[in-house]
Amino acid sequence: MLDLARDHLPSHLTTLARRYGNIYRLQCGSTTMVVLSSADVIREALVRKWSDFAGRPHSYTGDLVSGGGCSISLGDYSEEWKTHRKVTHSALQRCVAGPLQDVIKQQALKLRQVLLDYDGAAVDLSEDFTVAASNVITALSFRKQFEKSSTDLQKLHGCLNRIVSLWGSPWISALDSFPLLRKLPNRPFSKLLDEVTRRDALIRTHLEDFKHVLSRSGYGRLLNALNRNTLTDTHVHMTMVDLLIGGTETTAAWLCWTVGFLLHRPEIQDQVYEELCSVLEGRYPQYSDRRRLPVLSALVCEVLRLRPVAPLAVPHRAVRDSSIAGYFIPKDSVIIPNLFGAHHDPAVWTDPYKFRPERFLEEGGASLSMLLPFSAGARLCLGESVAKMELFLFTAYLLRDFQLLVPEDTSLPDLKGKATVVLKATPFRVVARPRP
Ligand code: HEM
Question: CA-based diameter of the chain, in Å?
Fold first, then answer.
């Protein structure tokens, strides 16, 4: 019996893949789930046969949290969804080519000041990373930035996090499988509905502020671009929810993992620092410097490999009968791309569980083409290029200015973590000592 609520489902599904193969089936009530755990089978399904597997499972509770299926992440494959995704993608690409780099740099410098203000104290940086990542999205869209102590920020993220965690709870998933339960009182479900109402009121306020006060003043280009197009207000609203949920906890969790791994191998920090000093001669990096900074780029790839922060992507649905690796896959099967499993596949990666950024630098070493942290195909992470610039610049700024140390009174951070929708490190403290 598979416990879907266990702490580290990706790792459990990967253990099953070693026993049953890189494609296997799980039966959950009337739903057939197909788990894919190697880059080859994931690519076959999501890239070569993308149009067969681009759907999302329908669910009663999913509809309630996604404005009736109007979100990009939970909306099913349809002409309306394709337009929604295309318009948002091109608005984001305009940001990547335009203001994004400056927005990230500004947040990286703000983060630098926060770390200087800690003055060598041992601290948990996870909230500071969340603030930085969230400010990138809110600056691009609403032209707003928040401090960690801001009640607006706490309200928004508190609410989004509660929705994600309540929606994943068994009390609520049960309503999708057993419609009769919807007639009974269910406290977690009432809480979920309250949080969705609260979320919508908060997003509406930010959208209204933008419309009345800020839209004429230049950037906030993401919303300007969305509003110029044919999207309905509900679609624009749900885009903001998608970007805030998709773009905040993922980036913040990845930064925490990077710090955690670097505490285990401090010599990698020194290598990155030396590379930054010798290549940049004191200046801060640009994203265009990435090819001249191979050690830093290898570090980014290795953390994405070992801890793909969306380890099981988002479930896909077969929109018609199809096949994967020669197996028949009936319409409406739920497809789970186990990215964590693919990144730990011993047929592809030497010492798959070891943190070794150098694997990407060695001759004949690891191949970037086997990495799938952002998934692939029609549902490829919509924020991939935003995220890549963020991971590179935040890490570069952090390691240029600080040496990260394990506090004297503590042991090294645990590197197993806990996986819900996002794979997060167990909280740990770190000392950020300014580089001379
Ligand atoms: C979806 C990974 C950051 C927005 C996804 C998926 C993955 C992923 C694996 C699921 C794809 C699938 O269903 O096959 C990551 C990682 C990130 C990151 C590893 C950072 C380290 C971001 C950022 C944004 C974002 C910064 C927004 C700016 C989205 C959206 C979707 C998505 C909207 C839904 C796409 C769809 O259903 O078509 N992401 N993501 N993500 N991500 Fe990201």
Answer: 67
Helices 233-264 and 126-141 cross at an angle (nearest 10°) of 150
Ligand 1 atom with the shortest distance to the CA of 74: 37
Please name which of 234, 235, 155, 233 lies closest in space to residue 195, comparing C-alpha atoms: 155
Please state, in angstroms and rounded to a whole number, the distance separating the CA atoms of residues 419 and 10: 7
Bridge partners of 399, per DSSP, are none
pLDDT digits (tens, 9 = 90+) for 185-238: 899 999 999 999 999 999 999 888 877 765 555 545 677 777 766 788 899 999
From the number of C-beta atoms within 10 Å of its C-beta (0-12, 13-18, 19+), residue 274 rates as: exposed
Phi, psi at 191, each rounded to 5°: -65, -40
Q: Which two tokens stand for residue 59?
A: 């669910």
Residue located via tokens 């403290």: 429
pLDDT tens for 191-204 read 999 999 999 999 99
Q: Is the CB of 305 under 6 A from ligand 1?
A: no
Q: How far is the CA of 247 from the centre of ligand 1 (A)?
A: 7
Per-residue pLDDT tens for 136-181?
999 998 888 888 888 888 889 889 989 988 887 888 888 888 888 8
Establish whether residue 314 lines the binding site of ligand 1, counting it when its CB lies within 6 angstroms of any ligand atom. Answer: yes
Tokens encoding 195: 């949080």
Taking Cα atoms as reference points, which of 136, 146, 59 lies closest to residue 100?
136
Residue with the smallest CA separation from ligand 1 atom 5 is 381
Q: Are strands 23-28 and 31-36 parallel, antiparallel or unpaired?
A: antiparallel
